[in-house]
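agent> step 3/5: call structure_predict on target 'FecR family protein' (Spirosoma rhododendri).
agent> reason: downstream docking stage needs a structural representation; sequence fetched in step 2, passing through unchanged.
tool.input:
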Amino acid sequence: MQYKDALYQQLLEDQRFVRWATGEAPQDDEHWKNWAREDSSRLDTMELARQTLLAIQGGPVDLSQADIDYQIQRALYTAKQREMQTRIPVGREHRLARFNWVAAASLLFLLGFGWYGYLNRTTLTRSLSVKKTQPTTDPLLVSNRLQCVANTDRPARHVLLPDGSSVVLYKNSQVSYAFAFNGPRREVYLSGEAFFEVTKDPAKPFFVYADGLVTKVLGTSFTVKAHQQAEQVIVVVRTGKVAVFAQADPTADAIRTNLELTGLVLTPNQQATFERTNAHLSRTETDAPTGQPSFEFRATPAADVFAALEKAYGVTIRFDRDVMAHCSLSATLGDEPLQQKLQWICTILEATYQVKDQQISITGKPCQ
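tool.output (status=ok):
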């Protein structure tokens, strides 16, 4: 961690790197590529520094929100650790101490980006990356890197991610993600509550960032609750295994880059609770998650199967009831995403489906 922080600062103060990163010295491409190849651990830090400089310059930004959050959380963690090492008398001074470490974190963060004045560029703000490219009546907002889906009025809304994973987004919740998961990680940012069914891909871990807590999976189903007014962030596992860790944890970088599940590992019917006030993380046993239906069908009419999917995922399924009146399904579906469930159901029923927004159209033949 200290090595990467020092390298990050060093790059931002290196005039040759600054000129190359901001596009003023393209002739140095090979130099910096070779420099990064000498030590594979340099690549991520170099890219973060480059994107930061581009943001300050006002150029195109591909900086992950997780990278921004990492810098903030790292500053908070460092300041908190320093405050805890100092003995503070009980009483009014305790309140002052809490203010001091928060203020110190802000100062650390600003010092971390202290080269801002040196570079004499425009202020770095989140507005650099936010643009509305959809009608204002649509809750889907698009930035130059992330698209954001909000559910403000429905009990549940289904969101299909670029890798085929499913998100059931509950009311008053929001999820953001990249248009395509082209990098080594699949990253999603959640505010509120959602149920995830993640497409399995061990080579490309899936991350959910939720108010200071990170959930890492390779392919499974789980619920994350991170409401803004709540004092806790909760993760409940339905199937498979997930790992959770605090975003400010000094080992967070190592956990993120490791293809294995490390950190606090949860299995089915286990729950992780993250206390926002003190960053305490604990694991407990819990009952089977409620609110998530079991898709076990035994000679179940197609209409009832589709109704179960509608209720679970907050979608509308249209089909010809007369044509499929005698169709039924016997199958047990697990934690696979909605799209995969639809593929299996349609294969059994010899039907096809199309998805548009929250509406699914199924076309099939009469069943004998």
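agent> step 4/5: record observation. Residues 2-125 form one domain.
agent> proceeding.
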